[in-house]
Specification:
The protein has two domains: 191 residues; 192 residues. 69% of the residues lie in helices and 0% in strands. The model has no long low-confidence stretch (mean pLDDT 91).
C-alpha cells in the first residue's frame, strides 16, 4: 500500500461492493435500465481517468503505473459483484473499469514511454485473465484487441519493440488459458485472439529483420518459439502429455481436448499467411513458423489418440492436422526461395512429421506429409542450390516406404517416381545422375 497509495481506492471500493451486496443491477440486452449506472463507481473511474490524463501530460511515468495498477485492481473488485441473477454472465462494471484501463493505456501511445506501455499491456492481460476465470471467454475479446493494437507500436517506433514482446506474451498466455478453461465454447474468443496474434505478426514482419540474431523471431517468440520453455508451443506439449494420461471418463481432460480442437480449427489460415509473408521478407522467422506448423501437426495427431477425447474430436483433430501440414505445400518453388527455405530443414521436417504420425497410427496425415515431401523433392530438387534436396528427399521417402512390412508403399513409390521423372519439369539428367550416385 505504501508503494502505491492509489490502491486505497480499490480497498474503499471493495468495502463499497461488500456493503451493497446483491443490490447491483446488471445491464439487460433487451431494454435499458437506468439503475445499472452507479454514481459511486462512475465517479471513481472518472477521477482516475482525469488523473491519468494529467500524469500523461506531465510525463510522470511512476504515477501512470500506479493509475494502471489501481484501474486493474478495480476490474478485479467489480468482477466480484453479485448481480443476484444466475443468468447474468457479463460483469458490466468490471467491463467498464477495463474500458477505462484500455483508454488510459492507449493515451500513452503518442508519448515515448515504452516501460509504461509495457506495464499497461501487462495490466490489460491480467484483467483479461480475470474475465476468463469468470467463465465467459467472450469478455476478453476487446482487451485482446487492445493488447494487439498497442503491441503494434513496435512496428512504428524502435523503442516500442519490447512492448510487442510483452503483447505476444499476454496473447500467448490468453490462448493457453482459454484452452485450459472449463467453459463449453471458446470458439469465438480463441478465433479473435488468434486473429490479433496474426495482426501483430503481419505488421511486425514489415520491419526489416536483423541478419545475425533475428529480431522477428525474438519479439514473436512467446507464441511461436519452440526453443524456450516459456512459450505456447512448450506449454501445449506439456499439456498434451498430461491429457493423454487421463482416463477416458475424465471430463476435465475431455473439455480441454475439445478446446484444443476448437483452437486448431482454421489455424492453417493464419499460419499460411505468416509463412508466406516471412518467406517473402526473407525473415529468419520462417524457421519458427515451419517448425511450429510441424510441431502442432504432430501434437494434434497425438491428442486424437487420447482416451479422454470424444469420438467427434478424435475425427476432427487429424482433419485440422491435415489442413495445417498442407500449408507447407504453398512454399514457392523458385530457386532463390528454395535455397532460402531449405536452410531451415524443410526436407527433414516433412520426413519427421510423416514418420511420427505413421508411428502414431495416422496413415492419412502421414501420407499427406509424405506427398508434400515427394512434391518438394521435385519442385525444389530440380534446382542446384547445394542442399542435395533430391537425393535426401528420395532417401527419406524410401525409408517411409520400407518402414512397414507392407510392400505396397514401396511399389507405389516406384510408380510415382517413374511418372514424375517423365514430366516436363523433372530434374535434368545431370542432377538425376548425381542423385543416383549419392543414393
Amino acid at each position: 500500500m505504501a508503494n502505491n497509495p492509489l490502491l486505497a481506492v480499490a480497498v474503499i471500493n471493495t468495502k463499497y461492493v461488500e456493503a451493497k451486496g446483491k443490490t447491483f443491477f446488471a445491464r439487460h440486452l433487451l431494454f435499458a435500465n437506468p439503475q445499472v449506472t452507479n454514481a459511486f463507481i462512475n465517479d471513481t473511474l472518472d477521477h482516475l481517468r482525469q488523473l491519468a490524463q494529467f500524469a500523461t501530460t506531465r510525463g510522470d511515468e511512476e504515477q501512470i503505473r500506479q493509475i494502471f495498477a489501481a484501474m486493474a485492481s478495480l476490474v478485479q473488485v467489480y468482477a466480484r459483484i453479485d448481480y443476484a441473477n444466475q443468468y447474468i454472465a457479463t460483469k458490466h462494471h468490471a467491463q467498464l473499469a477495463a474500458s477505462y484501463l484500455m483508454g488510459a493505456v492507449e493515451a500513452v501511445l503518442p508519448h515515448n514511454m515504452a516501460d509504461v506501455l509495457m506495464e499497461g499491456v501487462r495490466k490489460m492481460g491480467q484483467s483479461a485473465q480475470i474475465f476468463l476465470t469468470l467463465g465467459n471467454p467472450n469478455d476478453i475479446v476487446t482487451l485482446a484487441e487492445k493488447i494487439a493494437l498497442v503491441s503494434c507500436a513496435g512496428v512504428m517506433h524502435q523503442n516500442f519493440r519490447p512492448v510487442t514482446l510483452v503483447g505476444m506474451e499476454q496473447l500467448a498466455e490468453l490462448t493457453f488459458n482459454l484452452i485450459r478453461s472449463k467453459t463449453p465454447d471458446i470458439r469465438f474468443a480463441v478465433e479473435k485472439v488468434r486473429a490479433n496474434v496474426a495482426l501483430i505478426v503481419r505488421m511486425f514482419l514489415n520491419v526489416p529483420d536483423t541478419p545475425l540474431v533475428s529480431m522477428h523471431s525474438a519479439y514473436l517468440a512467446p507464441y511461436y518459439s519452440l526453443t524456450t520453455t516459456q512459450s505456447l508451443g512448450a506449454w501445449l506439449a506439456d499439456l498434451a502429455n498430461a491429457l493423454t494420461k487421463a482416463e477416458a471418463n475424465n471430463q476435465d481432460a475431455s473439455t480441454v481436448i475439445r478446446n484444443i480442437e476448437q483452437w486448431a480449427e482454421n489455424l492453417y489460415r493464419t499460419e499460411k499467411e505468416a509463412l508466406l509473408i516471412a518467406i517473402e521478407k526473407r525473415s529468419h522467422f520462417t524457421f519458427d513458423v515451419i517448425h511450429w506448423i510441424a510441431h502442432v501437426t504432430k501434437l494434434l495427431v497425438f491428442l486424437s489418440r487420447a482416451p479422454a477425447a470424444n469420438d467427434r474430436v478424435k475425427q476432427e483433430l487429424p482433419r485440422h492436422a491435415l489442413w495445417l501440414i498442407g500449408v507447407l505445400s504453398w512454399i514457392p518453388n523458385d530457386k532463390d526461395t528454395t535455397a532460402f527455405v531449405e536452410t531451415f530443414g524443410v526436407t527433414e521436417l516433412l520426413f519427421e512429421v510423416a514418420l511420427d504420425t505413421m508411428v502414431q497410427g495416422d496413415d492419412e496425415v502421414s501420407k499427406a506429409a509424405g506427398d508434400i515431401l515427394f512434391s518438394w523433392a521435385f519442385k525444389a530438387g530440380r534446382h542446384a542450390v547445394g542442399w542435395s534436396i533430391l537425393e535426401r528427399s528420395l532417401s527419406a521417402l524410401a525409408t517411409l516406404a520400407l518402414w512397414q512390412d507392407d510392400p505396397a508403399p514401396a511399389e507405389r513409390l516406384k510408380v510415382e517416381l517413374a511418372k514424375r521423372l517423365n514430366t516436363e519439369n523433372a530434374p535434368e539428367q545431370e542432377m538425376r545422375d548425381d542423385a543416383a550416385r549419392e543414393l
